[in-house]
């Protein structure tokens, strides 16, 4: 069995916790592999037949990066919250050792969340492909002009949107940037994708919820300025005029380790201070 411990290399708290738990895990016969960025992952097994798992040390941002690794390797992930909000992570720092014991004893459930797969095509050539747990978006540069997009859902033209940007998100991501942009909160068990315009020029533009089986196509209309292509809050490329972005559900879901019953609506109330 292996534990792939994922944390930011510049996080002092995460690195200290990693040093503490490493001898605890190795003492129980678990091989520990530390990953802080794009380390060589060739020795990490695919699939969880041997009980291997990923341990994310940090906040929601760290969890999102570790979760993409989880989908790549086909291993379940447990999030230890060292951040402030901790909407995605399941375990607080004072629960670490009890939680590790539960994982090693296989006394947990797995919650599966859908993942996005996105491709950027330029002049007939695929220039970028990526996955995202929360969202992918095309957004104008800070000093750039407003953008126009032609949008298709399942191959059917859904209209043209003029806005600062456009975002496709998962139910998991519906409580992130999409929510700030006026998008709906979607229960994570719902099989759906959300398309949200960022500061649309047309005030009749509204978020669109579509089937998770649909492919969303975003064609970028001519503009004098380049735009940014973002994934889970990270810039991963540039977008030019006439580029086409294809977004669909990734074949591989992310498997999140849950050690206790977690009610989505209770989490919403606690994290967003509803009723306080």
Annotate the secondary structure layout.
Blueprint: E1 2-7, H1 12-26, E2 31-35, E3 53-58, H2 60-73, E4 77-81, E5 91-92, H3 96-104, E6 109-113, E7 116-122, E8 125-132, E9 135-140, E10 147-153, E11 156-163, E12 165-169, H4 177-180, E13 192-198, E14 208-211, E15 216-220, E16 227-231, E17 234-239, E18 244-249, E19 254-258, H5 264-272
Parallel strand pairs: 1-2, 1-3, 3-4, 4-5
Antiparallel strand pairs: 6-19, 7-8, 7-18, 9-12, 9-16, 10-11, 10-15, 12-13, 13-14, 15-18, 16-17
Please sum up the structure shown.
The protein has 5 helices and 19 strands.
Describe this structure in words.
- The protein is α+β, with helices and mostly antiparallel strands and 276 residues long.
- The chain has two domains: 2-113 and 253-272, Probable inorganic polyphosphate/atp-NAD kinase, domain 1 (Rossmann fold, 3-Layer(aba) Sandwich), CATH 3.40.50; 116-249, Probable inorganic polyphosphate/atp-NAD kinase, domain 2 (Tumour Suppressor Smad4).
- Helix content is 18%, strand content 39%.
- The chain has helices at 12-26, 60-73, 96-104, 177-180, 264-272, and strands at 2-7, 31-35, 53-58, 77-81, 91-92, 109-113, 116-122, 125-132, 135-140, 147-153, 156-163, 165-169, 192-198, 208-211, 216-220, 227-231, 234-239, 244-249, 254-258.
- The strands form four sheets. A six-stranded antiparallel sheet has the order 8-7-18-15-10-11, with no helix packed on it.
- A hairpin with a 2-residue loop joins β10 (147-153) and β11.
